[in-house]
Write a structure and sequence with these properties.
Elements (H helix, E strand, L loop, with lengths): L6 H46 L5 H33 L1 H20 L19 H4 L14
Helix pairs in contact: 1-2, 2-3
């Protein structure tokens, strides 16, 4: 036979349930952001493959973007194992700080100027051609002509 629960025990159970629901919600939001990152990469890889993977063949550029996407899926469980092991050994806080620092470093590397494919020509106002060739001519969007 079990002892009857007191009002204090119900309060502790309610507080514990709220803490668990909050933890589940925060973890779900983090997972949502991570999957959004994968989705955004997949959706926009067509547009930025030429910028990140220099070359003359767009098919090779797209394949390189797809390989990087696949590499992200392969490395994900390996990273989970590695950071889980680090969290067990050194604590969750240190493992989380290391993962965030590595993500910041990756973002910094994306932001740095690329030296793999230097520009072929310098874009100057003279080399771009007349204003009418640069701007689309549609009703309401005609460029203002300057008199010379």
């Amino acid at each position: 036979m079990t002892a009857p629960k007191t009002a204090g025990a119900e309060h502790v159970d309610l507080a514990d349930m709220r803490r668990r629901i909050k933890a589940i919600f925060i973890g779900s939001v983090g997972n949502l952001v991570e999957w959004y990152d994968f989705y955004a990469y997949a959706a926009f890889a067509l547009y930025f493959a030429g910028s990140f993977f220099p070359g003359n063949d767009p098919v090779v550029q797209q394949l390189n973007a797809a390989l990087l996407f696949a590499f992200g899926f392969i490395v994900r469980p390996v990273g989970g194992w590695l950071f889980g092991h680090l969290a067990d050994q050194y604590g969750r806080r240190k493992a989380l700080m290391l993962s965030v620092l590595l993500m910041c470093f990756g973002s910094l590397m994306v932001d740095r100027p690329s030296t793999a494919a230097p520009p072929t020509r310098r874009s100057t106002p003279e080399s771009r051609g007349p204003v009418s060739a640069r701007w689309p001519s549609s009703p309401g969007m005609t460029p203002r002509r300057t008199s010379t």
